Amino acid sequence: MKKIVFSPFILFLIACGSGRQEKENVSNTITNMDLKKDYEIKSIEAVNSVSISWSKPVKGLQLGVDAENNNVSIYLKNETPEPILVFSHVKADKIHLDPFIFFLKPKNTNEPYKEIQLHGARLKSSPIYLLLKKEVLIHKVDLLFWSRTEINGNYEIKPGFYELKLKYEPKNNSQDSWIGNLEAGPIDIIIK
Predict the structure, then answer these.
(1) What pTM value is reported for the model?
(2) What distance, in Å, lies between the first and last C-alpha atoms of the chain?
């Protein structure tokens, strides 16, 4: 009978390999943290959904929002023929959507809206400005992930029916970018 002997190094490699796979699977479930998928830019014609709630245009820019469960899509649309430079996000260890804020409240209640910010603590970061030419910028956001961050008080959203509003208010104008205030919604959202 032959004896199979594994060295401690081989056992270590086997153990590390399975742990690495689990980390990859976990990171793939949080799409807005994948730096390769910061955003999408599409033509106006490609973003023609009736479920999107659009703000009124301000200086050529419109804000839109729609949702499926806790997955929320944020849209910035330039309908003018002139390019508009917009503050899109901040790139750090994960994507931070500093100029965007969600407001959430249970549907059909008199409760105040809960503010959910889409940024957090970071050491190094770079603001990302994008030039939109009659196009739509799209961010996909996991509402539950951001509500549970420290800046939002680790807010736990219970399953149920909610109203969601979105605000875009960039304050940094270091790039001569669009400055103003846009509000979209409210839309109905179901958290499961």
Answers:
(1) 0.77
(2) 56
In this predicted structure, what is the pLDDT of residue 173?
63
Average pLDDT over residues 125-139: 89
> Is position 48 within any domain?
yes
Among 68-72, 93-97, 103-107, name the one with the lowest average pLDDT: 93-97
- CATH number for the domain that contains residue 184: 2.60.40
Amino acid at 119: H
Neighbouring CB atoms inside 10 A of 136's CB total 22
Q: How many domains does the chain have?
A: 1
Tell me the residue ranges of DSSP E strands in 79-148. Answer: 84-91, 95-96, 100-106, 114-117, 126-132, 135-142
In a domain, 12, yes or no: no
Rounded to the nearest 5°, which phi and psi values hold at 9?
A: -65, -45
Beta-carbon contacts of 47 under 8 Å, excluding residues fewer than 6 positions away, are: 64, 75, 77, 136, 138
Mean pLDDT of all residues in the chain? 80
Categorise residue 23: left if φ over 0, alpha if ψ from -120 to 50, beta otherwise.
Answer: alpha
Residue at 146 is within a domain: yes
Q: Which two tokens stand for residue 85?
A: 């430079």
Within a domain: 18: no
List the beta bridge partners of residue 120: none
Distance (Å, rounded) from C-alpha 112 to C-alpha 135? Answer: 34
Enclosing H/E stretch for 121: none
> Which residues constitute the domain of residue 181?
36-191
